[in-house]
Structure prediction request, 360 residues.
Amino acid sequence: MTETTIFLGIESSCDDTAAAIVRRHATGEAEILSSVVEGQATLHAPFGGVVPEIAARAHAERLDYAVEAALREAGLGLRDLDGIAVTAGPGLIGGLLSGLMLAKGLAAATGLPLVAVNHLAGHALTPRLTDGIAYPYLMLLVSGGHCQFLAVEGPEDFRRLGSTIDDAPGEAFDKIAKLLGLPQPGGPHVEREAALGDAKRFRFPRPLLDRPGCDLSFSGLKTAVLRARDAIIAEKGGLMLQDRRDLCAGFQEAVASVLAEKTRRALELFPAPVLAVAGGVAANQAIRARLETVCDAAGARFLAPPLRLCTDNGAMIAWAGIERFLSGAEDRSALIARSRWPLDESAAPMLGSGKRGAKA
Ligand code: KG4
Ligand code: ZN
Prediction:
């Protein structure tokens, strides 16, 4: 491919309304011309989780502004684009439909090619957008809605090596924050408290370490923290600041140990030259440090894209759309929204559907 390719990417599968313009140069290098992300946190905050109806309505109201802003910031018009990519799943169906309707309308009006993108593929291909790494590589997706190890061998070639059988780790961080009276989203708050705590005071379980393979589980860990909290309250009549810090430290240590050991196994199963992470939990410094140690020992490079591209955004959708387009894909009006859409169709379905929608 010798030409430059410019795509608009539209993302509305959960609680971020996002649009971005990405250019792929003839050399294969990517350039993010603009990336607009409008979060809905304040709309959902009173309900303690994402409310699908509120999310869908907000996407429908804000998506066209996000697209306009993305074009304006890139200094381009619709006529400058080579195609439109849109998240078609997995996620909350109302939000997905809002994005799809806008994308179909724009494609019909302009005659531009339309490409459906799997949201998880967007995350999984991000290291190629940010660092131009070659296939194959190993991807660990750790967010509020996802947790899986993927062997990535091409733009549509994903093999799931393992995934959570219940909660995603970000969801666990959020629930721990809630039961310790910390604000949402809980991850950064739990990390801050954990830094001041004694990780050795509580020894929480390391779920599924006794089972071979790379599957993970986080819901039992949450129950263990709840029990420890209640035992302290029963004994002392309340929770002291240091108790909370120690609980956070013990919890984070358990999550980090499990992720590190499962990553070691995943690299054994699929000895890739690079392990890349994506998702909000990848922001956690303690977890990153453990994963880096595992990679060093396995002789793999550890790659963590900038956080704004690790979390939900339109640039990853535009890029995944470009990759699919260049490998011959085009979807047009047959495109449907899919609340569940596993990247690896051959892998057994996983249980569980978290507060951020179905996990695939
Ligand atoms: O990728 P993301 O922005 O959204 C989706 O889940 O799709 O991830 C958000 C999740 C939240 O559950 C949040 O608590 C968690 O990532 N998170 C963290 C940290 N920062 C965000 N978890 C642990 N440590 C952090 N520093
Ligand atoms: Zn996501």
